[in-house]
Design a protein that fits this description.
2 copies of one chain form a homodimer. By secondary structure, the first copy, chain A, is α/β, with parallel strands linked by helices. The first copy, chain A, has 2 domains: about 180 residues, NAD(P)-binding Rossmann-like Domain (Rossmann fold); about 120 residues, N-(1-d-carboxylethyl)-l-norvaline Dehydrogenase, domain 2 (Orthogonal Bundle), CATH 1.10.1040.10. Chain A is built from 11 helices and 10 strands. In chain A, strands 1, 2, 3, 4, 5, 6, 7, 8, 9 and 10 form a 10-stranded mixed β-sheet that branches. The longest helix of chain A has 25 residues. The model of chain A has no long low-confidence stretch (mean pLDDT about 95).
C-alpha cells in the first residue's frame, strides 16, 4: 500500500506517521521543512506515544514520486493562494484515490473537476496537533477522523483507509454522507473561528458566555444552508454544539492561532464557502454575511500591516 | 445669559468657548483637568482663531453653581457608566433649559424622565476637535451644530442658542425634527465607527473600498429603524452618505481613536440603542445585531486586557 502525503505540517505529519505505523509505505511532499525532514524524518510526540516517523521518501514536489501511489492524501490548508490541484497533479495516476484531510465546506468540487476519473475521498480531522519545530509534530489531544467518498457513499478504499488508521490507534469512521459531516463541523467552526479573531483573541468559553445568542444565530444559519443543499442536520445540533463547547476547557481556535502568528486564515474555506452556498441556495444568511465581511476587513488590515 | 457646561473636554471646551465669545456668561464643570482649567482656563486653537477661554467659574460639581443657569449644556460621552442625570442635577433649576450636545440615538428619554418639567434641547455636533492636553483644545475642522427641542419643535430658547453660536462664527441650524437628524447621523456612525474598530484600525476609505456592500446594508437597516420610529429619512440618504464618504480624506473614526487610546467607546449610544429600537419596533436588523454583538465581544476583551 503506497501513500503520498502532500503537505507535511501538523496534520499531514501526524496522519502520515499513523499510516506508516500501520504498515503503509508512506512518502511525503514537504516544502518549507524539506531539509530537516529529508534527513531525520518527523519526530512525533503524541498521546499514542513518541516515535520517529521515517518516510519512504521525502520529496519537494509530487511529480518526483515515480510510480503513482494508491492514495494521495492532501493535508494543506485550504487557501485561495494555494492551487491544490496543481500541488498533487504530478502524483495522481489513473488508479490513485485522492484523499482530502482538510477544513471547510464545499472544498471537493475543485478537485473533482481537475481529476474527474479518480476516486475522491473527503475527510475531516478532529484533532489538536501542532508543528512545534521543523520535523517535530506534537499531537496534544483527540485525533478522530471521518472519511467518506465524495459526493457520498463508502467504497472499499475508504474502508481500507479507516482500518489502517484504526490499527494505528485512532478512531476513523466511514461516513455515508461526508458532505453532511462537513456542514456539521461547520456549525461549530463558522461562529467560533471568526469570533475568536474579531473579538481580539477571546477563548471559546468567553465568546459563549457573553454572546451565546450570536453564536446560536450563526449556527442556525449554517443548518439552514446545509438543509438547502440537501444535507439536513439533526434538530438538536445547535444545542449539542453549545452544550459541548460549555464542557470544553477555554480554547483558542485554529483561526485565532493562525491570526496571532500572522499566518493566512481559512476564512474562505470555512466562512466564505458557507456564505456563497447560502446565497446560491437563496437562503438568508445575514449574520454569517456580516461576520464574513468583517473577516475580510480584518484580513485586509492584516495584509496592510504586513506590507509596512 | 448664564450657561453651565458639564463635561469640559474637546466638545464642551470648544462650544463653551464659542458661547463665551458670543457674550454669554459661561461656567464649566470640569473633573479630570480641574486644576489646570481653574487656574488658566482653556486655550483654544481653532480654524476660527486662537484665544484663551476664561470661564466665569470652574466647578468640580454642578451643585456648586449657586444660582441656576439659563442653560445647562451636557457634553460628556454617553456611556453606561456615566449617570448623566446625576451629573447635572445640582444645577438644574425650574427655569433651566437642558441642552445635550452628545452622540447617539434615543439618548434623550433618560434625561426627560429625570427632569420632566424642564425644557430639553437636543443637539448634534459635526466637528473635528480634540483635547490635546489639560486645558488645551484643538478645533481642527468643521463645527456645525444642529439643535432642536425634544421630542420636536423649535422654541425661542433654541433660536437664542443658535444665534449665539452663529455670532461666534459657526453654523447652528434649528431643527424641527432633531430626532430624525440623530437617525440621519447614525446612518454614517453605525457602520463606520464599529467597522473601524472591528477591522483592526482601518480608515473609512479602506472600509468603503473593500466592503461597501456591508456598509450599505447597515445603513439601510438604520433607515428602516428610523422610519419605524416615525422619522423616515429621505430615499437617497444612503447613496449620499456613501458619496460623501468617498470624497472625504482617509478618516479615523472617533470610536477607533477611543479604542486605540484604551478609552471606553460609545457603543451603546450609537449601536446598542439603534439595535434596541429596531427590536422594539420589530424590524429585522441582523447586520446591526451582529456588529453590535461583535463590539460587545471586543469591549469584553479590552476590559480583560486592561485588568491584566
Amino acid at each position: 500500500m503506497k501513500v503520498l502525503i502532500v503537505g507535511a505540517g501538523a496534520i499531514g505529519g501526524f496522519y502520515g506517521a499513523l499510516l506508516a505505523k500501520a504498515g503503509a509505505q508512506v512518502s511525503l511532499v514537504c516544502r518549507s521543512d524539506y531539509a530537516v525532514v529529508a534527513e531525520c524524518g518527523i519526530e512525533i510526540r503524541s498521546t499514542l506515544g513518541e516515535w520517529q516517523f521515517e518516510p519512504a521518501a521525502v520529496l519537494r514536489e509530487a511529480g518526483e514520486v515515480g510510480e503513482s501511489p494508491d492514495y494521495v492524501v492532501l493535508c494543506t490548508k485550504v487557501l485561495p493562494q494555494i492551487d491544490r490541484a496543481a500541488l498533487i497533479k504530478g502524483a495522481v495516476g489513473p488508479d490513485t484515490a485522492i484523499v482530502l484531510i482538510q477544513n471547510g465546506v464545499e472544498i471537493e468540487e475543485e478537485i473533482a473537476r481537475a481529476f474527474p476519473a479518480n476516486e475522491l475521498i473527503s475527510g475531516l480531522a478532529f484533532v489538536c496537533t501542532s508543528r512545534t519545530a521543523p520535523g517535530q509534530v506534537w499531537h496534544q489531544a483527540y485525533g478522530n477522523l471521518m472519511l467518506g467518498n465524495w459526493p457520498s457513499g463508502v467504497g472499499p478504499r475508504v474502508s481500507v483507509l479507516c482500518e489502517l488508521f484504526e490499527s494505528a490507534g485512532i478512531k476513523a469512521r466511514a461516513m455515508e454522507d461526508i458532505v453532511a459531516a462537513r456542514w456539521r463541523k461547520c456549525v461549530w467552526n463558522a461562529p467560533f473561528n471568526p469570533l475568536s479573531v474579531l473579538s481580539g483573541g477571546l477563548y471559546t468559553s468567553d465568546i459563549l458566555s457573553t454572546q451565546e445568542s450570536l453564536v446560536r444565530q450563526l449556527m442556525e444559519e449554517v443548518c439552514t444552508i446545509a438543509a438547502a443543499t440537501g444535507h439536513p442536520l439533526s434538530a438538536d445540533v445547535v444545542d449539542r454544539n453549545i452544550a459541548d463547547t460549555r464542557k470544553m476547557p477555554p480554547y483558542k481556535t485554529s483561526m485565532l492561532l493562525d491570526f496571532e502568528a500572522g499566518r493566512p486564515m481559512e476564512t474562505e474555506a470555512i466562512l466564505g464557502n458557507a456564505v456563497r452556498a447560502g446565497q446560491r441556495e437563496q437562503v438568508p444568511v445575514p449574520h454569517l454575511e456580516t461576520v464574513y465581511a468583517l473577516m475580510k476587513l480584518r484580513e485586509y488590515q492584516q495584509e496592510q500591516n504586513a506590507r509596512r
